[in-house]
Structure formats: C-alpha cells, structure tokens
Amino acid sequence: xxxxxxxxxxxxxxxxxxEILTAMGVALFAGSFWKMHQWNEQxxxxxxxxxxxxxEIGVVVDEE
Length: 64
Fold this sequence. Notes:
The protein has 64 residues and is mostly helical.
C-alpha cells in the first residue's frame, strides 16, 4: 500500500497588526471600566464634602 499524503497545518508567526489591534481593544475595554470606577469614586467624594459643608454630617465624634 502506498502511503497517502496528509495535509498538515502550517504554523505561521503572529500577525503584528492583529496583535496591536487586539491589545488596543483590550486596553480600551479595561480603561473604560477603570474610568467609570474613578468617576464613581469622585462622585462619592463630592457628595461627602457637600454634606460636610451643609453640616448634615460631621467627622468629629461627639463625646457623651
């Protein structure tokens, strides 16, 4: 019997453009979550200082 030829997949190197675009996509995705987190923290801090200025909250514990 004659041995048949088997088609093998040839491995190629990484595509530089594809790697750059993938990295940019991941960076934008992660960066957007980080920015949303920063905006939420900034909103909490502003709300705290607004309440502090209005006198609704205090940072000193009253002694009894």
